[in-house]
Amino acid sequence: MNEMYLTRRDLFKIGWAAIVLSLSLPKNLLAKAEKIPVLMYHDISDQFKDEYTVSPPLFAAQMEWLYSNGYSALSFSEMGQFTQDNDKKKVIITFDDGYSSFMDYVFPLLQQYKFKAVLNIIGNYVGTYITLGGNRPMLSWDEYRYVSKSGLVDLGCHTYNLHLYRHRGVLGVPDEVLRKDLLWFQETLKHEIGKTTEILAWPYGLYSQKSIKIARGVGFKYILTSNEGYLDVRGDFHEIPRLNITDKLDLTSFRQYLQQNQK
């Protein structure tokens, strides 16, 4: 059996070649992968007390804490900025369903702090209400047009009418029904707002790899789940995890929840 021996000079050459190679790689490939907390909210209200609701005072305190601690609340369309400046603290704020409380408690704070947010719409409930512990009014298309024109709010899809399947979500319908629902949402958004969206959030957090494939085929690029975790900016944008923010999190717990990924 032939044995291979490396001289000290051979080892030096190998080590120097590795250094040269590392210097030739882009800095963003050598840097530690940045992970961004994506916050998931639903309703902001004093009237309801449940897992979908955060009280207005607590929400205001959370936004003030983010601003005071140097966070920038960005949109998915600004994804390229994440890798350009790893020193800045970043967060993505998302709201599911489209409750009218957004206009009362959320949008004024976005304007005050220059924060951006994503608002995922249930198409069939626009301008009506959802019965969830009581009647919760929903935003109208006029209000969606208003916040969209501000440049602070990106509108996303929460399907057109698949919340109807409360226990199965998109898993409760055939593939073609899902595809048609997403297409109908895009057509409706185009008619009402003037453009489609690349953002989708699954009802009840339920989905499959097949439903992801269907969504991508319809044009969705950023697909939000209810899986707990942090967004790896060099990872897969088709299964984006989020942090579920509820009224059970006081300000200390909120801070710890966001900063877990920095340890």
Folded structure, characterized:
- The chain is an alpha/beta fold and 263 residues long.
- The chain has one domain (35-262): TIM Barrel (Alpha-Beta Barrel), CATH 3.20.20.
- It is 38% helix and 21% strand.
- The chain has helices at residues 8-24, 27-30, 56-68, 80-84, 101-113, 141-149, 175-193, 209-218, 251-259, and strands at 35-36, 38-41, 43-44, 53-54, 71-73, 89-97, 117-121, 129-131, 135-137, 153-157, 199-201, 222-228, 231-232, 240-244.
- The strands form four sheets. Strands 2, 5, 6, 7, 10, 11, 12 and 14 form an eight-stranded parallel sheet that branches. A two-stranded antiparallel ribbon has the order 1-13.
- α5 (101-113) links the parallel β6 (89-97) and β7 (117-121).
- α3 packs parallel to α5 (101-113) and α7 runs parallel beside α8 (209-218).
- The longest helix is centred in the last third of the chain and has 19 residues, at 175-193.
- The radius of gyration is 22 Å and the shape is globular.
- The termini are far apart.
- Mean pLDDT is 87; it is low at 1-6 and 11-31.
Considering the protein shown, what is the CATH homologous superfamily? Glycoside hydrolase/deacetylase
Order of helices and strands: HHEEEEHEHEHEEEHEHEHEEEH
Q: Into which percent range does the helicity of residues fall? A: 25-40%
- How far apart the termini lie comes to 49 Å
Secondary-structure class: alpha/beta
Poorly predicted sequence stretches spanning 5 or more consecutive residues: 1-6, 11-31
Q: So how many helices?
A: 9
Q: What overall geometry do the principal axes of the alpha carbons give?
A: globular
Mean pLDDT equals 87
